Amino acid sequence: MRRKKNIKTSGLGSGLSSLLGEQSDKPSWISDDDNSENYRMIPIEFIEPGPWQPRKDFDKSELESLAISIKNQGVIQPVIIKEKKDTKNEYYLIAGERRWRASQIAKIHQIPAIVRNDLKEEKVAELSLIENIQRSELNSLEEAEGYQLLTKKYNYTQEEISKAVGKSRSYIANVSRLLSLSKLAKKYLLQKKLTVGQLRPLIGQEDCDNLLEMIYKKNLNARQVEKLIREKQKKNLEQFEKKVDILELEKELLDVTGLKIDINFNEKKQSGNLNIKCRNLTEFNYIISKIKS
Description:
It is a single chain. The protein is an alpha/beta fold and 293 residues long. It has helices at 17-20, 28-31, 33-38, 60-73, 97-105, 121-134, 140-152, 158-165, 169-176, 183-190, 196-199, 209-218, 222-257, 281-292, and strands at residues 39-43, 47-49, 79-83, 91-95, 110-115, 260-266, 271-277. The protein is elongated and about 95 Å long.
């Protein structure tokens, strides 16, 4: 069912902090009646990341550092969770996945949590995305996947996403297009071998994977990559045009000799070669005799 339009969306700066209230030295959930009622200690194994969670990549060293802090001081700020629809006492994470993961490393069996069953899934998806963008915790591909989730699963328009996350529609459109990159290009991005700027000119281009290593080794900037793509397109067009021009000649040679002959000619170098395909010894001897005569 399509979500209602003209909903009141959060701007950048709201995010999941709106679930906890303004944070002070003493977290607001302790003194807030509603939050206090929903505050519980939940076994770690009863919780799993929500399907709306855009973040997939977590820095191992950062988690280990946080785990040491949790061992020493405990989990100071609760995670926010929502009970699964069809399963009692099992929960999806809305916020605090780093704390949840680090607690597992620290071998903590229970974690403080605020249960927010009142939140609708589309609102949770929006707030989760906002919070991660707000903290700059998402890589570009995770951000693009988050926008895609809001669009496809929750029927958000780009304008609604723009209002929700405080980014321009053109920015959202450009980031979303990263999902059309090849698997290898995405790998280079995730490994931080190439930047979004370096890869953006490759979006929508076919068979550009062979250029990735060259772009990386030569550290080509965005303009240089754009120039490289233009040159590649021009070369492909020239090759196509040359092939069209010589098709008739190849057909004439087939009619005369009965043999399939491929003509490769470089107009710039004014050189080329003929590739004569012989299917048997008779055809091979035939062409040899013609060349000798």
